[in-house]
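Entry 14. Ran structure prediction on the chain below.
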Amino acid sequence: MAEQKWAGTTYGNDWMHKWLIRMLRYIDIRILYLFVALFIIPVCLVLNPSRGIAYRYFRERIGYGRLKSAWKTYVNHCLFGQVVIDKFAMYAGKKFNVEIENYNEFLNLAAQQDGFVQLSAHIGNYEIAGYTLVAESKRFNALVFAGEKVSVMQNRNKMFADTNINMIAIRPDMSHLFEIDKALANGETVSMPADRINGSPKYIEHDFLGAKAKFPLGPFSVATMRSLNVLAVNVLKTSLRSYKIYVTPLHYDKTTTRKEQIQQLSKAYVAELEKRVRQYPTQWYNYFEFWA
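Output, structure tokens:
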């Protein structure tokens, strides 16, 4: 099957998003969870190629049997629907219980003068980290897709209004690279995903869940350019109203060659990602042929 590329935007249009936010101000999110599970997900599984991609992931990479893989494919899509609903529930003012593992690792780096890099992945609900891991003393810059829906960007701006967070839009002319470099030079934090190459010819390969997979070179190159400290941050849903943030330092030898630094850092990132994916296999949301 040819690789299916995601457009980079949240599904639906602006007026649908606005109505969803209004609804979530008054109704229990569990009602929407149930509606999505019963009426939306079955249709998506019939029409969307993500069904086969997720099934092969559970069957070939996680090692489940046929029936379990089929069931987990359904659960995976339901959880993805819940993550999307949770995002809009936050826009509507609802709160979630958030537990942070190794919070001191983040606070220690935030207290230092030098900037640092925070790497994420398309697992769980990373956006919650942006509303939780905030340091008053250090500006937090998050890379976001420039073509995201207006309603989503407006609500993000509203959520970030009272925080020290700045969004850097990823642009086709690559001008966002200058903003990233400037932020790090100023001792700020830069957060970026490191699990999708998005068509870039620059990548690095690692064994991931038993097979070779390509990871973008950019995030690791940015971090090693200034020999910066790096954290892997993954946010996983643990119950209907709870999430857990895993903060993990990624160590590499800053005295060796740049090529070796990138190799070590990317390997550490992939190892941490594999650990979390195996821990929460149904919250892996990469719906394209990752191991193609």
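Residues 1-10, 147-151 have pLDDT under 50 and may be disordered. Will compare against last week's run tomorrow.
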